[in-house]
Amino acid sequence: MCPAAPAHSERVAILDAGAQYGKVIDRRLRELKVECELLPLHTSAEDLRRDGYAALVVSGGGASVYADDAPKYDPKIFEMGLPILGVCYGMQLMNYSCGGTVERGAKREDGVFDVQVEEGSTLFEGLGSSTKVLLTHGDSVDKPADGFRIVGRSGQIVAAIECAERRLYGVQFHPEVDLSVDGNAILSNFLFKVAKLSGSYTMESRQEAAIEEIRATVGDKKVLVLVSGGVDSSVCAALLHKAIGPERLIALHIDHGFMRHEESSGVVKALAALGVPIDALDATKDFAEAVTEVNGKTSLPLATECAPELKRKIIGDTFMRVTQAMVEKKGLKAEDVYLAQGTLRPDLIESASTLVSSNANVIKTHHNDTQLGRIIEPLKDYHKDEVRELGIELGLPAPLVWRQPFPGPGLAIRTLCATEPYLTEEYDRSSAALAAECARHPELRLTSALLPVRTGDGRSYSYLAALSSDAPPDEQWEALFTLAQEIPCHLHDVNRIVYVLGEKIAAAPKAITPTTLTRDALDQLRAADHIVTQTLTKYNLLRSLAQVPVVLFPVGFGVEGARSIGIRAFITRDFMTGKPALPGRDLPLEMLVELQRRILAEVPGIARIALDITSKPPATTEWE
Ligand SMILES: Nc1ncnc2c1ncn2[C@@H]1O[C@H](COP(=O)(O)OP(=O)(O)OP(=O)(O)O)[C@@H](O)[C@H]1O
């Protein structure tokens, strides 16, 4: 599965016992400039030896070593002579496999605890006699295996063991998480003092390795890279250019009409400045007129279609068709071309985790050939922030490198399309229930309105609820956020809540302004989005806020023909879950005032600005 490594390899294998923490260990090791791979726990000692790993980390996992369904592993891994760090379940497995015992559910510990550690253990060198760590476990080591000694305790519980002679170490806690304050020091001790690695996996060395790999894979063939205007594909193009030069690189950008302000021209300019020739195709009209077919039924043309899934499908289909036509026009045959994809490490890790649960389908999709040619993934070894670092090293401009993630279908899925208001039989009942929820917090002085539009995805596609009040909630945002958490739990047909800035909503709007992907609607959204980007840049918030989708929704709040803008300032590290940025803490209050003032003054036809105050879950990051 892994490419054979040279004999002097400094790679560490992280054997994933099924916990989310495996990914975090991967991240930490790379930060410590150590190359690592996340592999399923059942990887055999023979494979690990063949691939030349220098050390192993066995991760945490939810099972008990005695359970019938405990994840499979090869006991020989503990006899290979490699230095091993077992973390949580990994430590229990190491102890059990080497002949010790594990006590089931002795005493659960979940949270941050002080553990007493032995300073004489190489693992804890340089630390004091106690350290704060995250413990989250039920089982724990009872009798250490022969040759092991206890080097850490949390009360009566064994928190760390070692067999220094065999370079086997185990910790019950999680050194990889931020909550373990000396976690990095402990990992460093293992990597550099026990395993004697050098920590030479630097950005520079990785760039060289990536370039070598591209050259070796591609040979004298050509490479096609589709450049979206986002970070990953731009960095991918710049790296490929450095690896194979401009003659054999075909970089293609498609303007589908849903790009942000000057995004297409910006990416073309930035790459041209590096000498990367990029073909930009204006396919706005192709996209607007395109249709798709589902179950034998033809959709409306994209510019008039409202259903989110149909919009996405039309864009996906048209994207393939336009690209294919472009490739054919250039006389390129699939067998002569590699297609470069900006797949990042977390994408591959997701697949590897699926492998652990014996579902190998996903990883395969990464290696399938496509109609457009065989795939190479030059960034597969990088995390998002590392891609940004690489981009800067390659000479891409900071504003491009720091662009926020933007979905492929772009503004098309940030324009809530509807030609009719969404009003179900439950509308009145749900409106009353929403008002009752707000009335439970009289101190917030809220007025509520169930808006006649839907947001969300296939799992939950339902009403958008709006709250407003007479006075800005300056001190009350936190209470408002708590209420926004509660509302979807009690009202199952509401999945997103916004707070409408400015005066309170006079009456619940039951009408909408018909909106589809037409020029005027897209121009409104593009202009508002640009103001948001400028304002975030001014307040230096582009980096702390992971993603700030700006959305156009077809409600004029009583203003004939007007629409409104939703802003979802979203904080997340993992992009799986997240919470809205809190005004007054994460967003300066004066910035909100400025945003509102500018959008209303500069974008014609916008009635209100609404701040999305819902967490994920229940609300998705994007509105559709
Ligand atoms: N308008 C476009 N023109 C050309 N290629 C595109 C366009 N939109 C998307 N792509 C291609 O499809 C890939 C996946 O799109 P997606 O929006 O999911 O990007 P991503 O993985 O976030 O990467 P990026 O940061 O480069 O946008 C992009 O990396 C790019 O190769």
TrEMBL record:
Question: Pfam families from the xrefs?
Answer: GATase, GMP_synt_C, NAD_synthase
InterPro entries (UniProt xref): Class_I_gatase-like, GATASE, GMP_synth_C, GMP_synth_GATase, GMPS_ATP_PPase_dom, NAD/GMP_synthase, Rossmann-like_a/b/a_fold
Pathway as given in its UniProt record = Purine metabolism; GMP biosynthesis; GMP from XMP (L-Gln route): step 1/1
Q: What is its EC number?
A: 6.3.5.2
Query: Keyword rRNA-binding: yes or no?
Result: no
Q: What does the entry list under GO cellular component?
A: cytosol
Superkingdom = Eukaryota
Keywords assigned by UniProt, alphabetized:
ATP-binding, Glutamine amidotransferase, GMP biosynthesis, Ligase, Nucleotide-binding, Purine biosynthesis, Transferase
Question: In what residue span(s) does the GMPS ATP-PPase domain sit?
Answer: 201-403
Which GO molecular function, any one, fits this protein according to its record? ATP binding
Binding positions for ATP per the UniProt entry: S228, G229, G230, V231, D232, S233, S234
Q: Coiled-coil segments, which residues? A: none
Task: Return the broad EC class.
Answer: ligase
Subunit and partners:
Homodimer.
Question: By what name is this protein known?
Answer: GMP synthase (glutamine-hydrolyzing)
- The species this protein belongs to is Emiliania huxleyi (Coccolithophore)
